[in-house]
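cron nightly-structures :: item 1 of 1
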Amino acid sequence: MSELGQIVEKIRSKNAGPFWVTIDIFCGGAAAYDQVQAGLRTDQIAAAFQVPLDQIKRFDIPYLNVVKFSLPRPAIQGTIADRDMHGAGWGPMIAELTLAG
C-alpha cells in the first residue's frame, strides 16, 4: 500500500470562497492519476477532516491528471474561529493517507 504523498507530484489546498476549501491533487501523469483515482476513497477525505461524506464534492479530471475535493470550512473565512484564512494548510494533512489496492 502506498501513501498519497509518495505517488503524486503535489497536493495543494486553497480557498473556494468564504465557506469552502478546495484540495487539488496533482498526479503528474496518467499512471499516478489512475492509481489515485481508483485508490483514494472519498470517505477517507471525509474522515480525515471530520466532515460528513455527503458534504464533500469530488472531481476526477483525467485530462489534467488531477483529483479535486471541495469541502466546507469548519469556520467562515476571516472569523475569529478561522485558523487558516487562506486554506493552505489542508492539503498536507492528507499526504499520509494510504491508497487501496
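cron nightly-structures :: done
The chain has one domain: 4-83.
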